[in-house]
Write a structure and sequence with these properties.
By secondary structure, the chain is mainly alpha-helical. It contains seven helices and five strands. A hairpin with a 7-residue loop joins β4 and β5.
C-alpha cells in the first residue's frame, strides 16, 4: 500500500485537472445556434437527444441532481427553444421532454466539437492494452464514486 506522501504528486495533478474542469464548466460556447450554451446546458440537450424523449425524473437521475434542479434546467432550455415539453399520454401527470430542431442542431454541433477536440485523448485510450484500459475504466468509476462522496457530504454535513 502506498503512503499519502508517495501519492502526493499524482494527487496534485488530479487536483489541477479537476480545477481545470471546473473552469471549463463555466465557459459558454456557441454550438451553431447563435447563442452560447454552458457545458451543463449542452450536455442536458445531448442527453435528451440520445434518449429521443425522457422525463424530468430520469434527467435528474442521470445527472445526479434533484428533480427541482432538473426541472429548472429543462424549463430554461424550453424557454430558449432547445427542448419541448408535452404531457405523457399514458401518464397524464408526467411531462415528456424532447429535443426541438434547434436542440438537435446544437447536439450535432456539440458531438462534432467532441469528435474534433477529443480525438487525441480517445486515440490514447484506444491505444491502451486491455489491462491498461481496464485499469483506466476502474479509475474513472472510482473517481466518479469519490465525487459522489463529496456531493453526499455537502448535502448532509452542516
Amino acid at each position: 500500500m502506498r503512503s499519502m506522501d508517495q501519492m502526493k504528486d499524482l494527487y496534485h495533478i488530479l487536483g489541477l485537472t479537476l480545477q481545470k474542469y471546473e473552469t471549463i464548466a463555466k465557459v459558454a460556447i456557441d454550438f451553431g445556434t447563435g447563442e452560447k450554451l454552458y457545458p451543463s446546458e449542452v450536455h442536458l440537450i445531448s442527453h435528451v437527444c440520445f434518449c429521443a424523449q425522457t422525463c424530468v425524473t430520469r434527467i435528474a437521475e442521470h445527472f445526479g441532481v434533484t428533480k427541482g434542479a432538473a426541472s429548472q434546467n429543462v424549463a430554461k432550455l424550453v424557454h430558449k427553444g432547445y427542448l419541448a415539453k408535452t404531457r405523457d399520454p399514458d401518464k397524464g401527470s408526467r411531462m415528456l421532454v424532447t429535443p426541438t430542431d434547434k436542440g438537435i442542431a446544437a447536439h450535432q454541433a456539440h458531438m462534432a466539437f467532441h469528435e474534433r477536440h477529443d480525438k487525441p485523448f480517445l486515440d490514447f485510450l484506444a491505444g491502451l492494452s486491455q489491462d491498461q484500459f481496464k485499469s483506466f475504466e476502474t479509475f474513472a468509476k472510482e473517481l466518479n464514486r469519490w465525487m459522489d462522496s463529496y456531493l453526499a457530504a455537502i448535502n448532509t454535513e452542516p
